[in-house]
Amino acid sequence: MTKISSKDLGIQPINKLLIKQAVPASIGILVMSLNILVDTIFVGNWIGSTAIAAINVVLPVSFFIAALGMSIGIGGSSIISRALGSSNKEKALKTLGNQISLTLLLTITLVVLGLTFVDNIIISFGGKGDMFVPAKIYYTIVLYGVPFLALCMMGNTVIRAEGKPKFAMYAMMIPSISNLVLDYVFINLLDFGMEGAAWATSISYVFCFIYILWFFLSKNSELKINFSHFGLNPKLVYEISSLGFATLARQAVVSITYLFMNNILYDLGGETSVTSYAIVGRMLMFAMFPVLGLTQGFLPIAGFNYGAQNYERVRETINTAIKYAMIMATLVFMLLMVFPEEITRMFTSDIDVINQTPSDMRWVFAATPIIAIQLIGAAYFQAIGKAIPALLLTLLRQGLFFIPLILILPKFYGELGVWMSFPISDVLSTIVTAYFLNKEIRKDLIQ
After folding, report:
1. Mean pLDDT across the stretch 187-214?
2. Who has greater pLDDT, 413 or 394?
3. Is the distance from CB of 75 to CB of 241 less than 8 angstroms?
Protein backbone atom coordinates (compact mmCIF):
# COMPACT_ATOMS: atom_id res chain seq x y z
CA MET A 1 0.00 0.00 0.00
CA THR A 2 1.34 3.44 -1.00
CA LYS A 3 2.13 5.58 2.02
CA ILE A 4 -0.24 8.55 2.18
CA SER A 5 0.64 11.80 3.95
CA SER A 6 -1.81 14.43 5.17
CA LYS A 7 0.15 16.93 3.06
CA ASP A 8 -1.20 15.23 -0.08
CA LEU A 9 -4.54 16.88 0.71
CA GLY A 10 -3.03 20.20 -0.31
CA ILE A 11 -1.01 19.05 -3.31
CA GLN A 12 -2.72 16.42 -5.46
CA PRO A 13 -5.29 17.33 -8.18
CA ILE A 14 -8.78 17.71 -6.68
CA ASN A 15 -10.47 15.20 -9.01
CA LYS A 16 -7.91 12.52 -8.21
CA LEU A 17 -7.79 13.41 -4.52
CA LEU A 18 -11.57 13.44 -4.07
CA ILE A 19 -11.86 10.03 -5.71
CA LYS A 20 -8.99 8.70 -3.59
CA GLN A 21 -10.71 9.94 -0.43
CA ALA A 22 -14.32 9.22 -1.40
CA VAL A 23 -14.03 5.74 -2.93
CA PRO A 24 -12.70 4.04 0.23
CA ALA A 25 -15.24 5.99 2.32
CA SER A 26 -18.03 4.94 -0.05
CA ILE A 27 -16.92 1.31 0.01
CA GLY A 28 -16.79 1.40 3.80
CA ILE A 29 -20.28 2.92 4.00
CA LEU A 30 -21.50 0.45 1.36
CA VAL A 31 -20.27 -2.53 3.34
CA MET A 32 -21.70 -1.09 6.55
CA SER A 33 -25.02 -0.37 4.80
CA LEU A 34 -25.05 -3.83 3.24
CA ASN A 35 -24.53 -5.20 6.72
CA ILE A 36 -27.63 -3.33 7.97
CA LEU A 37 -29.53 -4.35 4.85
CA VAL A 38 -28.63 -8.04 4.95
CA ASP A 39 -29.01 -8.09 8.73
CA THR A 40 -32.58 -6.87 8.26
CA ILE A 41 -33.19 -9.47 5.54
CA PHE A 42 -31.88 -12.22 7.85
CA VAL A 43 -34.04 -11.01 10.73
CA GLY A 44 -37.14 -10.69 8.52
CA ASN A 45 -36.79 -14.13 6.98
CA TRP A 46 -35.43 -16.08 9.97
CA ILE A 47 -37.30 -14.38 12.83
CA GLY A 48 -40.24 -12.50 11.27
CA SER A 49 -41.48 -9.09 10.07
CA THR A 50 -42.33 -8.04 13.64
CA ALA A 51 -38.63 -8.36 14.49
CA ILE A 52 -37.81 -5.85 11.72
CA ALA A 53 -40.19 -3.34 13.28
CA ALA A 54 -38.77 -4.08 16.75
CA ILE A 55 -35.20 -3.32 15.65
CA ASN A 56 -36.41 -0.11 14.02
CA VAL A 57 -37.71 0.96 17.44
CA VAL A 58 -34.30 0.37 19.04
CA LEU A 59 -32.04 1.90 16.37
CA PRO A 60 -32.57 5.60 17.17
CA VAL A 61 -31.47 5.12 20.79
CA SER A 62 -28.31 3.15 20.05
CA PHE A 63 -27.51 5.32 17.01
CA PHE A 64 -27.81 8.48 19.08
CA ILE A 65 -25.26 7.24 21.63
CA ALA A 66 -22.97 6.09 18.82
CA ALA A 67 -23.48 9.48 17.16
CA LEU A 68 -21.79 11.06 20.15
CA GLY A 69 -18.62 9.36 18.99
CA MET A 70 -19.20 10.45 15.40
CA SER A 71 -19.90 14.05 16.40
CA ILE A 72 -16.80 14.20 18.61
CA GLY A 73 -14.87 12.60 15.76
CA ILE A 74 -16.08 15.04 13.11
CA GLY A 75 -15.70 18.07 15.37
CA GLY A 76 -12.18 17.04 16.36
CA SER A 77 -11.23 15.97 12.85
CA SER A 78 -12.08 19.43 11.53
CA ILE A 79 -9.59 20.81 14.07
CA ILE A 80 -7.01 18.13 13.23
CA SER A 81 -7.28 18.72 9.46
CA ARG A 82 -6.77 22.46 9.88
CA ALA A 83 -4.00 21.94 12.46
CA LEU A 84 -2.11 19.61 10.12
CA GLY A 85 -2.70 22.08 7.27
CA SER A 86 -1.06 24.84 9.34
CA SER A 87 1.72 22.50 10.63
CA ASN A 88 0.48 22.62 14.25
CA LYS A 89 0.90 18.93 15.09
CA GLU A 90 0.80 19.38 18.87
CA LYS A 91 -2.72 20.77 18.64
CA ALA A 92 -3.72 17.78 16.51
CA LEU A 93 -2.36 15.37 19.16
CA LYS A 94 -4.06 17.16 22.03
CA THR A 95 -7.32 17.16 20.08
CA LEU A 96 -7.21 13.39 19.56
CA GLY A 97 -6.58 12.76 23.26
CA ASN A 98 -9.50 14.98 24.22
CA GLN A 99 -11.74 13.22 21.68
CA ILE A 100 -11.07 9.83 23.30
CA SER A 101 -11.70 11.13 26.83
CA LEU A 102 -14.95 12.85 25.84
CA THR A 103 -16.26 9.80 23.96
CA LEU A 104 -15.69 7.44 26.88
CA LEU A 105 -17.13 9.81 29.46
CA LEU A 106 -20.32 10.63 27.60
CA THR A 107 -21.20 7.27 26.05
CA ILE A 108 -20.72 5.22 29.23
CA THR A 109 -22.92 7.69 31.14
CA LEU A 110 -25.67 7.43 28.54
CA VAL A 111 -25.50 3.63 28.44
CA VAL A 112 -26.06 3.47 32.20
CA LEU A 113 -29.05 5.80 31.88
CA GLY A 114 -30.36 3.87 28.88
CA LEU A 115 -30.32 0.58 30.77
CA THR A 116 -31.91 2.16 33.85
CA PHE A 117 -34.95 3.47 31.95
CA VAL A 118 -35.19 0.70 29.37
CA ASP A 119 -38.97 0.06 29.48
CA ASN A 120 -39.94 3.72 29.25
CA ILE A 121 -37.54 4.37 26.38
CA ILE A 122 -38.78 1.45 24.28
CA ILE A 123 -42.44 2.38 24.70
CA SER A 124 -41.71 6.05 23.94
CA PHE A 125 -40.05 5.10 20.64
CA GLY A 126 -43.05 3.08 19.50
CA GLY A 127 -42.21 -0.37 20.89
CA LYS A 128 -45.82 -1.30 21.56
CA GLY A 129 -47.85 -4.48 21.28
CA ASP A 130 -46.01 -7.48 19.88
CA MET A 131 -42.91 -5.35 19.24
CA PHE A 132 -42.13 -4.65 22.92
CA VAL A 133 -40.51 -7.94 23.99
CA PRO A 134 -38.19 -8.44 20.96
CA ALA A 135 -37.29 -4.73 21.04
CA LYS A 136 -36.30 -4.95 24.73
CA ILE A 137 -34.17 -8.05 24.13
CA TYR A 138 -32.33 -6.45 21.22
CA TYR A 139 -31.94 -3.06 22.89
CA THR A 140 -30.47 -4.37 26.14
CA ILE A 141 -27.74 -6.44 24.49
CA VAL A 142 -26.81 -3.95 21.76
CA LEU A 143 -26.44 -1.14 24.30
CA TYR A 144 -23.46 -2.96 25.86
CA GLY A 145 -21.58 -2.69 22.57
CA VAL A 146 -22.49 0.92 21.77
CA PRO A 147 -19.48 2.55 23.58
CA PHE A 148 -17.19 0.47 21.34
CA LEU A 149 -19.17 1.66 18.30
CA ALA A 150 -18.87 5.28 19.46
CA LEU A 151 -15.08 4.94 19.77
CA CYS A 152 -14.98 3.37 16.30
CA MET A 153 -17.00 6.19 14.75
CA MET A 154 -14.77 8.76 16.43
CA GLY A 155 -11.54 7.01 15.41
CA ASN A 156 -12.69 6.49 11.84
CA THR A 157 -13.10 10.20 11.15
CA VAL A 158 -9.65 10.92 12.62
CA ILE A 159 -8.07 8.27 10.39
CA ARG A 160 -9.63 10.01 7.39
CA ALA A 161 -8.45 13.41 8.63
CA GLU A 162 -4.89 12.02 8.54
CA GLY A 163 -5.36 11.29 4.84
CA LYS A 164 -5.60 7.48 5.34
CA PRO A 165 -8.94 6.66 3.65
CA LYS A 166 -8.13 2.98 3.00
CA PHE A 167 -7.57 2.28 6.67
CA ALA A 168 -10.86 4.08 7.43
CA MET A 169 -12.53 1.85 4.86
CA TYR A 170 -11.18 -1.31 6.49
CA ALA A 171 -12.41 -0.08 9.87
CA MET A 172 -15.95 0.15 8.49
CA MET A 173 -15.76 -3.20 6.71
CA ILE A 174 -14.64 -5.26 9.71
CA PRO A 175 -17.80 -4.93 11.84
CA SER A 176 -20.04 -5.30 8.80
CA ILE A 177 -18.52 -8.56 7.61
CA SER A 178 -18.17 -10.02 11.11
CA ASN A 179 -21.78 -9.13 11.93
CA LEU A 180 -23.09 -11.01 8.91
CA VAL A 181 -21.02 -14.08 9.76
CA LEU A 182 -22.13 -13.99 13.38
CA ASP A 183 -25.75 -13.43 12.31
CA TYR A 184 -25.65 -16.64 10.31
CA VAL A 185 -24.09 -18.56 13.19
CA PHE A 186 -26.21 -17.16 16.04
CA ILE A 187 -29.58 -16.86 14.27
CA ASN A 188 -29.62 -19.57 11.62
CA LEU A 189 -27.33 -22.28 13.01
CA LEU A 190 -27.80 -21.85 16.77
CA ASP A 191 -31.38 -20.48 16.63
CA PHE A 192 -30.75 -17.74 19.22
CA GLY A 193 -33.40 -15.47 17.68
CA MET A 194 -33.31 -11.81 18.70
CA GLU A 195 -30.58 -12.49 21.26
CA GLY A 196 -28.40 -13.86 18.45
CA ALA A 197 -29.00 -10.80 16.26
CA ALA A 198 -28.10 -8.48 19.14
CA TRP A 199 -24.95 -10.34 20.23
CA ALA A 200 -23.73 -10.50 16.63
CA THR A 201 -24.04 -6.72 16.41
CA SER A 202 -22.31 -5.98 19.73
CA ILE A 203 -19.40 -8.36 19.15
CA SER A 204 -18.81 -6.89 15.68
CA TYR A 205 -18.38 -3.45 17.30
CA VAL A 206 -15.64 -4.86 19.54
CA PHE A 207 -13.78 -6.27 16.52
CA CYS A 208 -13.85 -2.83 14.87
CA PHE A 209 -12.53 -1.18 18.04
CA ILE A 210 -9.59 -3.60 18.20
CA TYR A 211 -8.63 -2.72 14.61
CA ILE A 212 -8.79 1.05 15.19
CA LEU A 213 -6.75 0.71 18.39
CA TRP A 214 -4.12 -1.21 16.40
CA PHE A 215 -4.03 1.55 13.75
CA PHE A 216 -3.25 4.32 16.23
CA LEU A 217 -0.63 2.21 18.03
CA SER A 218 1.06 1.19 14.77
CA LYS A 219 3.42 3.17 12.53
CA ASN A 220 0.56 3.83 10.10
CA SER A 221 -0.71 6.77 12.16
CA GLU A 222 1.05 10.14 12.31
CA LEU A 223 -0.70 10.95 15.60
CA LYS A 224 1.21 9.40 18.51
CA ILE A 225 -0.45 10.58 21.69
CA ASN A 226 0.63 10.09 25.28
CA PHE A 227 -1.18 10.36 28.64
CA SER A 228 -0.71 14.12 28.81
CA HIS A 229 -2.98 14.51 25.77
CA PHE A 230 -5.96 12.87 27.50
CA GLY A 231 -6.45 15.68 30.00
CA LEU A 232 -9.50 17.69 28.99
CA ASN A 233 -8.64 21.17 27.75
CA PRO A 234 -11.68 23.51 28.15
CA LYS A 235 -10.89 25.49 25.00
CA LEU A 236 -10.45 22.35 22.89
CA VAL A 237 -13.51 20.69 24.41
CA TYR A 238 -15.57 23.74 23.50
CA GLU A 239 -14.23 23.78 19.93
CA ILE A 240 -14.77 20.03 19.45
CA SER A 241 -18.25 20.24 20.95
CA SER A 242 -19.36 23.30 18.98
CA LEU A 243 -18.24 21.81 15.66
CA GLY A 244 -19.41 18.28 16.45
CA PHE A 245 -22.73 19.47 17.86
CA ALA A 246 -24.06 19.82 14.32
CA THR A 247 -23.61 16.08 13.76
CA LEU A 248 -24.98 15.21 17.20
CA ALA A 249 -27.95 17.51 16.75
CA ARG A 250 -28.68 15.90 13.39
CA GLN A 251 -28.68 12.44 14.96
CA ALA A 252 -30.77 13.71 17.87
CA VAL A 253 -33.30 14.99 15.37
CA VAL A 254 -33.13 11.63 13.54
CA SER A 255 -33.92 9.89 16.83
CA ILE A 256 -36.82 12.27 17.48
CA THR A 257 -37.99 11.63 13.92
CA TYR A 258 -38.01 7.88 14.58
CA LEU A 259 -40.00 8.54 17.76
CA PHE A 260 -42.65 10.52 15.87
CA MET A 261 -42.66 8.27 12.81
CA ASN A 262 -42.99 4.99 14.70
CA ASN A 263 -45.83 6.34 16.83
CA ILE A 264 -47.66 8.17 14.02
CA LEU A 265 -47.38 5.21 11.63
CA TYR A 266 -48.41 2.74 14.34
CA ASP A 267 -51.55 4.79 14.99
CA LEU A 268 -52.34 5.18 11.28
CA GLY A 269 -51.42 1.76 9.91
CA GLY A 270 -50.24 -0.51 12.73
CA GLU A 271 -47.21 -2.79 12.61
CA THR A 272 -47.38 -3.04 8.80
CA SER A 273 -46.67 0.68 8.38
CA VAL A 274 -43.87 0.59 10.96
CA THR A 275 -42.31 -2.35 9.12
CA SER A 276 -42.61 -0.48 5.81
CA TYR A 277 -40.82 2.49 7.35
CA ALA A 278 -38.10 0.18 8.68
CA ILE A 279 -37.50 -1.22 5.18
CA VAL A 280 -37.47 2.23 3.57
CA GLY A 281 -35.13 3.44 6.31
CA ARG A 282 -32.67 0.64 5.53
CA MET A 283 -32.75 1.65 1.87
CA LEU A 284 -32.05 5.26 2.86
CA MET A 285 -28.90 4.06 4.64
CA PHE A 286 -27.89 1.74 1.81
CA ALA A 287 -28.80 3.55 -1.40
CA MET A 288 -27.17 6.85 -0.44
CA PHE A 289 -23.77 5.27 0.29
CA PRO A 290 -21.93 6.89 -2.68
CA VAL A 291 -23.19 10.38 -1.78
CA LEU A 292 -22.40 9.93 1.92
CA GLY A 293 -18.97 8.53 1.04
CA LEU A 294 -18.26 11.53 -1.15
CA THR A 295 -19.30 13.83 1.70
CA GLN A 296 -16.90 12.03 4.06
CA GLY A 297 -14.12 12.28 1.49
CA PHE A 298 -14.87 15.98 0.95
CA LEU A 299 -14.45 16.99 4.63
CA PRO A 300 -10.67 16.55 5.12
CA ILE A 301 -9.81 18.03 1.72
CA ALA A 302 -11.88 21.16 2.31
CA GLY A 303 -10.68 21.49 5.91
CA PHE A 304 -6.98 21.05 5.10
CA ASN A 305 -6.97 23.52 2.21
CA TYR A 306 -9.02 26.07 4.14
CA GLY A 307 -6.50 25.79 6.98
CA ALA A 308 -3.70 26.30 4.43
CA GLN A 309 -5.61 29.34 3.01
CA ASN A 310 -5.65 27.73 -0.43
CA TYR A 311 -9.12 29.04 -1.27
CA GLU A 312 -9.04 28.23 -4.97
CA ARG A 313 -8.64 24.54 -4.13
CA VAL A 314 -11.49 24.81 -1.63
CA ARG A 315 -13.82 26.19 -4.34
CA GLU A 316 -12.78 23.47 -6.75
CA THR A 317 -13.39 20.83 -4.07
CA ILE A 318 -16.94 22.12 -3.43
CA ASN A 319 -17.86 22.24 -7.13
CA THR A 320 -16.39 18.83 -7.92
CA ALA A 321 -17.99 17.18 -4.89
CA ILE A 322 -21.46 18.53 -5.72
CA LYS A 323 -21.17 17.49 -9.38
CA TYR A 324 -20.12 13.93 -8.58
CA ALA A 325 -22.65 13.59 -5.76
CA MET A 326 -25.58 14.72 -7.94
CA ILE A 327 -24.67 12.23 -10.65
CA MET A 328 -24.60 9.36 -8.16
CA ALA A 329 -27.79 10.51 -6.42
CA THR A 330 -29.60 10.53 -9.78
CA LEU A 331 -28.54 6.93 -10.45
CA VAL A 332 -29.87 5.93 -7.01
CA PHE A 333 -33.15 7.71 -7.78
CA MET A 334 -33.61 5.84 -11.07
CA LEU A 335 -32.93 2.45 -9.47
CA LEU A 336 -35.43 2.94 -6.65
CA MET A 337 -38.16 4.33 -8.89
CA VAL A 338 -37.98 1.27 -11.16
CA PHE A 339 -37.52 -1.63 -8.72
CA PRO A 340 -39.26 -0.81 -5.39
CA GLU A 341 -41.37 -3.99 -5.25
CA GLU A 342 -38.45 -6.29 -6.02
CA ILE A 343 -36.45 -4.57 -3.28
CA THR A 344 -39.26 -4.99 -0.76
CA ARG A 345 -39.61 -8.72 -1.49
CA MET A 346 -35.99 -9.25 -0.42
CA PHE A 347 -36.94 -8.29 3.13
CA THR A 348 -40.21 -10.11 3.71
CA SER A 349 -42.93 -12.33 2.32
CA ASP A 350 -45.65 -10.47 4.26
CA ILE A 351 -48.14 -9.53 1.52
CA ASP A 352 -49.45 -6.44 3.35
CA VAL A 353 -45.93 -5.02 3.67
CA ILE A 354 -45.17 -5.87 0.02
CA ASN A 355 -48.31 -4.07 -1.16
CA GLN A 356 -47.61 -0.90 0.84
CA THR A 357 -43.83 -0.35 0.79
CA PRO A 358 -43.13 0.33 -2.95
CA SER A 359 -45.38 3.41 -2.98
CA ASP A 360 -43.86 4.65 0.28
CA MET A 361 -40.36 4.16 -1.12
CA ARG A 362 -41.08 6.20 -4.24
CA TRP A 363 -42.31 9.13 -2.17
CA VAL A 364 -39.30 9.03 0.16
CA PHE A 365 -36.74 9.08 -2.68
CA ALA A 366 -38.62 11.46 -5.01
CA ALA A 367 -36.20 14.39 -4.51
CA THR A 368 -32.99 12.37 -4.19
CA PRO A 369 -31.13 13.92 -7.21
CA ILE A 370 -30.84 17.33 -5.51
CA ILE A 371 -30.06 16.22 -1.93
CA ALA A 372 -26.31 16.25 -2.70
CA ILE A 373 -26.31 20.07 -2.55
CA GLN A 374 -27.72 20.01 0.98
CA LEU A 375 -25.28 17.38 2.24
CA ILE A 376 -22.13 18.93 0.75
CA GLY A 377 -23.22 22.44 1.72
CA ALA A 378 -23.76 21.57 5.38
CA ALA A 379 -20.52 19.54 5.45
CA TYR A 380 -18.54 22.51 4.12
CA PHE A 381 -19.34 24.68 7.12
CA GLN A 382 -18.24 21.85 9.43
CA ALA A 383 -15.01 21.42 7.49
CA ILE A 384 -14.01 25.07 7.85
CA GLY A 385 -14.91 25.29 11.54
CA LYS A 386 -18.06 27.46 11.35
CA ALA A 387 -20.19 25.70 13.93
CA ILE A 388 -23.41 27.72 13.94
CA PRO A 389 -24.07 27.67 10.15
CA ALA A 390 -23.12 23.97 10.13
CA LEU A 391 -25.63 23.29 12.90
CA LEU A 392 -28.47 25.23 11.29
CA LEU A 393 -27.96 23.73 7.83
CA THR A 394 -27.63 20.24 9.28
CA LEU A 395 -30.93 20.63 11.13
CA LEU A 396 -32.78 22.14 8.18
CA ARG A 397 -34.12 19.02 6.54
CA GLN A 398 -35.39 16.97 9.44
CA GLY A 399 -35.60 19.45 12.28
CA LEU A 400 -36.98 22.62 10.72
CA PHE A 401 -38.96 21.13 7.83
CA PHE A 402 -39.59 17.38 8.14
CA ILE A 403 -40.86 17.08 11.73
CA PRO A 404 -43.39 19.94 11.39
CA LEU A 405 -44.58 18.45 8.08
CA ILE A 406 -45.22 14.96 9.52
CA LEU A 407 -47.20 16.56 12.34
CA ILE A 408 -49.31 18.71 9.98
CA LEU A 409 -49.81 16.88 6.67
CA PRO A 410 -51.31 13.62 8.09
CA LYS A 411 -54.19 15.72 9.46
CA PHE A 412 -55.17 16.45 5.85
CA TYR A 413 -53.84 13.48 3.86
CA GLY A 414 -53.66 10.65 6.40
CA GLU A 415 -50.71 8.30 6.08
CA LEU A 416 -49.92 9.67 2.61
CA GLY A 417 -49.08 12.97 4.29
CA VAL A 418 -46.27 11.27 6.21
CA TRP A 419 -44.60 10.05 3.01
CA MET A 420 -45.17 13.34 1.15
CA SER A 421 -43.16 15.09 3.87
CA PHE A 422 -39.90 13.49 2.67
CA PRO A 423 -39.55 15.11 -0.78
CA ILE A 424 -41.03 18.44 0.36
CA SER A 425 -38.45 18.77 3.15
CA ASP A 426 -35.65 17.73 0.74
CA VAL A 427 -36.55 20.47 -1.74
CA LEU A 428 -36.94 23.21 0.87
CA SER A 429 -33.69 22.39 2.70
CA THR A 430 -31.73 22.21 -0.56
CA ILE A 431 -32.92 25.66 -1.64
CA VAL A 432 -31.92 27.24 1.67
CA THR A 433 -28.53 25.46 1.76
CA ALA A 434 -27.70 26.47 -1.80
CA TYR A 435 -28.38 30.12 -0.93
CA PHE A 436 -26.09 30.17 2.13
CA LEU A 437 -23.34 28.13 0.48
CA ASN A 438 -23.23 30.49 -2.50
CA LYS A 439 -23.16 33.49 -0.16
CA GLU A 440 -20.26 31.99 1.84
CA ILE A 441 -18.25 31.21 -1.28
CA ARG A 442 -18.62 34.77 -2.57
CA LYS A 443 -17.65 36.25 0.78
CA ASP A 444 -14.66 34.09 1.79
CA LEU A 445 -13.35 32.13 -1.20
CA ILE A 446 -13.40 34.61 -4.09
CA GLN A 447 -10.36 36.86 -3.82
Report:
1. 90
2. 413
3. yes
The structure's pTM equals 0.70
Distance CA 386, CA 242 (A): 9
- The Cβ of residue 258 has, within 10 Å, a number of other Cβ atoms equal to 23
pLDDT tens-place string over residues 113-170: 988 998 888 888 777 777 888 888 888 898 888 889 889 888 888 887 777 878 888 8
Output the CA–CA distances (angstroms, integers) from residue 320 to 301, 313, 357, 373, 435, in the order listed.
12, 10, 35, 11, 18
Q: Output the CA–CA distances (angstroms, integers) from residue 160 to 1, 5, 31, 78, in the order listed.
A: 16, 11, 17, 11
The angle subtended at Cα 386 by Cα 385 and Cα 392, nearest 5°, is 135
Which pLDDT value is given to residue 35? 67
Name which of 219, 182, 215 is nearest 201 in CA terms. 182
Q: What helix, strand, coil percent values describe the chain, rounded to 5?
A: 90, 0, 10
Q: Return d(Cα 389, Cα 237) in angstroms, integer.
A: 19
- Where b means 16+ CB within 10 Å and e means fewer, 55-67 reads bbbbbbbbbbbbb
Integer angstrom CA distances of residue 284 from 125, 317, 333, 380, 422: 19, 25, 11, 22, 11
Residue 84 CA to residue 287 CA, distance in Å, equals 33
Taken as a whole, the chain contains a residue count of: 447
